[in-house]
Design a protein that fits this description.
mainly alpha; 3 domains
Length: 293
C-alpha cells in the first residue's frame, strides 16, 4: 500500500523489531511447553495443542494464498511453532548444555552455509536456500528453532519453581491471564484487523508519488540484489527503470493497473540493454547470464 516512504521490509531497525517479536513468540512458546508439562507429559493436551496449531497455520496459509498468491505464507510463525512443538518432546530429554549448543548451531548455520539444493518452496521451511522463496512471512527452522530451544532451557527452572511456590495473580490483572490463555485467537484476529485498518487508511490518505516511486525502487533493488547484483548495479538499474516511467502516471496510484505491466517491461528491457547496466535477469538461474561454470 506504500503508506510510508521507507522500506518497512528492508529497513534494519524494522527488521530487527520484527525479528525480536518473532523470537519472543518462539521463546515464550518453549517456556510454555516446559511449564505445561511440569507435572508429566499429557498426551491428550499435547495432541490438542498440536491440532489447534495445525488448523491455525493452515488457515493462515489458505487466507494468504487467496489474498497474496505470489507471496503467500507457506511457513510462517505458526508453522514454526508447530514444527518446534513436534520436536519438543525429544529436545527436552537432552541436557541443557547440549540444548544451548544446538541453539547456537541453529543460529550460525544459515549464516555460514546455504545451498541451491534447498531452493524452492518445498525446502523453504529449512531456511538453508541460496535464494529464499518469496513469502509475506517466512520463519524457517534455521535459525528460528534457536529461541524455542532457549525457551526450553529457561522454562526448566521456572517449572521447578512453580512446583514449589504458587503465584496467585492480583484480581486486577487476571484479565491478562485470560488473554494469555487465548493468545492464539488474538494472534489470528490481529492480522485481518490491522490489514483492514491499513486498507482504510489507504483510501483516505492521498497518494504521494514520491513515496510510491521510492517504494518501487527499494523493492526493485532488493529483488535484484537477491539474484546477485551489487548495490551499485541495483541502484543504477532500478533508478533507470523508475526514471523511464516517471511521466506515465504510474506513481499516482496505489492499485496495480494492468496497463502498467507493459510499461515496466519495456523500461526493464531498455535499462538492461544499456552497456553500463549489466544487471542479472531474475528470471534466469544464477550463472545463466555468463554461461555457467
Amino acid at each position: 500500500m506504500r503508506l510510508v516512504g521507507w522500506g518497512v521490509a528492508s529497513d534494519p531497525l524494522w527488521r530487527a523489531y520484527a525479528a525480536a517479536i518473532a523470537g519472543s513468540f518462539l521463546l515464550l512458546s518453549g517456556v510454555s511447553f516446559r511449564l505445561a508439562e511440569r507435572n508429566g507429559f499429557d498426551l491428550f493436551r499435547y495432541a490438542n495443542r498440536l491440532l489447534r496449531l495445525a488448523m491455525a497455520a493452515a488457515a493462515v496459509s489458505i487466507a494468504t494464498y487467496l489474498v497474496f498468491p505470489d507471496a503467500w505464507v507457506f511457513f510462517g510463525i505458526l508453522h514454526m511453532m508447530l514444527l518446534a512443538s513436534l520436536l519438543a518432546p525429544l529436545l527436552v530429554r537432552l541436557p541443557n548444555a547440549v540444548l544451548i549448543l544446538l541453539a547456537a548451531g541453529a543460529l550460525v548455520l544459515p549464516q555460514v552455509w546455504r545451498s541451491p539444493t534447498f531452493d524452492g518452496i518445498g525446502w523453504g521451511f529449512l531456511g538453508l536456500a541460496k535464494t529464499p522463496p518469496v513469502a509475506n512471512d517466512l520463519v524457517p527452522l534455521f535459525p528460528w528453532i534457536a529461541p524455542y530451544i532457549v525457551g526450553l532451557v529457561v522454562g526448566g527452572p521456572l517449572a521447578r519453581l512453580g512446583e514449589s511456590q504458587a503465584w496467585p495473580l492480583p484480581r486486577r490483572t487476571r484479565w491478562l491471564a485470560w488473554i494469555g490463555r487465548h493468545s492464539l485467537l488474538f494472534y489470528l484476529l490481529h492480522q485481518p484487523l490491522l490489514y483492514g485498518v491499513a486498507v482504510g487508511l489507504a483510501t483516505l490518505i492521498p497518494v504521494d508519488p514520491a513515496v510510491q516511486r521510492a517504494g518501487f525502487v527499494t523493492d526493485c533493488r532488493l529483488e535484484y540484489e537477491r539474484h546477485g547484483a551489487t548495490q551499485e548495479m541495483s541502484e543504477r538499474f532500478c533508478g533507470c527503470v523508475a526514471a523511464s516511467v516517471d511521466d506515465t502516471g504510474i506513481w499516482e496510484s496505489r492499485e496495480d493497473d494492468p496497463s502498467f505491466g507493459p510499461l515496466l517491461a519495456t523500461a526493464v528491457q531498455a535499462c538492461q540493454a544499456q552497456p553500463s547496466g549489466e544487471v542479472p535477469d531474475p528470471s534466469e538461474p544464477e550463472g545463466a547470464a555468463d554461461g555457467g561454470d
